[in-house]
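Complex record, two chains
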Amino acid sequence: MIDGLRRLGRSTLFWLNRLGRATLFLLRLLSALPTLAKRPSLAIRQLYSVGVLSLPIIAMSGLFVGMVLGLQGYANLVDFGATSSLGRVVALSLARELGPVLAALLYAARAGSALTAEIGLMKTTEQLSAMQMMAVDPFARVYAPRFVAGIIAMPLLAGIFTAVGILGGYFVAVQQLGVDSGAFWSQMQSTVKLFDDVINGVVIKSVVFGWVANWIAVFEGYDAIPTSEGISLATTRTVVNTSLVVLAVDFVLTALFFGV
Amino acid sequence: MGAFKKMELAVGVFVALGLAAFFMLAMKVSNIAELGEDKGYKVTARFENIGGLKVRAPVTLAGVRIGRVVGIGLDTHTYEAVVTLSIEPRYDRLPTDSSASILTSGVLGEQYVGLEPGGMDEYLKNGGALKLTQSALVLEKLIGRMLTNAVSGDNPPAKTP
């Protein structure tokens, strides 16, 4: 009984401690941004590894998710003779939820884990300490470029995911199942609103998700226990925590943007 | 340096793709603009009530889509809705006395304009007008009329003792 309470208290203190460290880390990260602005090439290199290399998995997943939405939507709407609303169903579900959320989850698995492992290994092999010895600030040189590149990459990836998904839904609905292409696009255009759905849904959500995902990924690497086991633990924690936080934040944002 | 140049190029392509995706979302998916070119000839039709007809709704004849609605306006003198239809150029043999009605596809489906061909020898041209039209069925009015009919059918014998 007392043991249980003691364990609960210890783990609570542990999490509060980590949260505080993560916040201080974020502040130091933000204060390193002006230094980064002088050397944007560092961020471009990172944009390549988190953005360009994530492109195939994002595009493929978007295509298949869109195609599944087209098929499922058709199978369920055909009973009501409402297959002309398919474009609306596919576009709204992709733009408001699936596009940014699935892109963020895939990003956490594909790029976030790699960030954590890379930084964790740098820490383990004492490259970061070596940098500090040479008066190179790892915040400006290592953490900030990765953080910024991730925040730039995330909305672009979510936009590509959504657009490719809609094209996949179009392919299945119009080319395969024979929904009228005019009805598909016109119903979509009459319901999807630029500011409510595209800007709030895709852009704002994915910028927030990118912030959260990269903050967690870089922090877990920074905070990893410098052993091989510690790195594996940190990498797992990145993917698990990012997924949970992204889904929770998504609920808050959805309530904010689309709640009544 | 060559490798870095290649990386820059790849990042440039990635950013361009992302922006292109947003451009498509803005232009093609949301209602900001219509990009598709329109080569059809325009015909107007006046309706008392267009119900839930939307711009870009299909125009059909015998169930085949031959064009789409490109504009909906209101005539402020007669208080009629003026619907502009764009009909594909290859269907240029529509008689001038064809009639247009607003129909609904399925129970929850969207509304569209259905044309019935007439018998005249002259054909509709760009800027022409459809004279014979039938408005959309508004469910509330229909139910209201049904109720009045039912009430007036039952009551008169009871009123006169």
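Note: Residues 15-255 of chain A form one domain.
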